[in-house]
Amino acid sequence: MRRVVCPGSFDPVTNGHLDIVARAALIYDEVIVAVLHNPSKSALFTVDERVELLREATKKYPNVRVQKFHGLIVEFCRVHDVSAIVKGLRAVSDFDYEMQMAQMNYNQSGVETFFMTANPLYAFLSSSLVKEFAKYGGDVSGLVPDPVLDALSGRLSPS
Ligand code: ADP
After folding, report:
1. Would you place residue 158 in the very low, low, confident or very high pLDDT band (cuts 50, 70, 90)?
2. pLDDT tens, 16-60?
């Protein structure tokens, strides 16, 4: 079984993330989307909310499952018998950090990292940009799945 993991914060999941997950699901037998729980980093959505939004957005892919994790992704890979990490690369600005992380992960565990180039339709997209625009009334429909749109308007609406 060729099982890979797509790790990230997904705060919240965007169509750019989903594009990578869907393409990975065509190539590998199973894709685990691993949602990082990092209590020291403030997030708009709790890790359980992020997991729920991802489950909703990926339910049409039978070989994709979503789980939260904390700590090292290589430890998650060991426990879940995952042989490789799949990451999306949007631009050269992603590359330096991702290459360093991939080499460290390989050094620590032998887990490989495969990079997929971002779909040009979504290469400009990040969760932080979506939150920033949504917060000030920007239209992010078409950039995130519908449940995320609803969740954003609920979370960011003026109180
Ligand atoms: P971000 O907050 O930048 O969206 P995440 O940690 O949630 O970051 O991203 C997880 C992974 O998804 C990273 O490998 C990142 O490069 C990739 N990714 C994020 N946005 C996109 C996108 N628009 N297209 C392709 N890959 C993406």
Report:
1. low
2. 999 999 999 999 999 999 999 998 889 999 999 999 999 999 999
Positions marked catalytic: 17, 41, 90, 127
pTM for the whole structure: 0.95
Q: Which of 68, 63, 2, 66 lies closest to 33, judged by CA?
A: 66
**Beta strand pairing status for 112-117 and 3-8?**
unpaired
Nearest to residue 85, comparing CAs of 75, 93, 74? 74
**Ligand 1 proximity of 94 Cβ (cutoff 6 Å):** yes
Relative to the CA of 125, which ligand 1 atom is closest? 23
From atom 6 of ligand 1, which residue's Cα is the shortest distance away?
8
CA of 39 to the centre of ligand 1 (A): 19
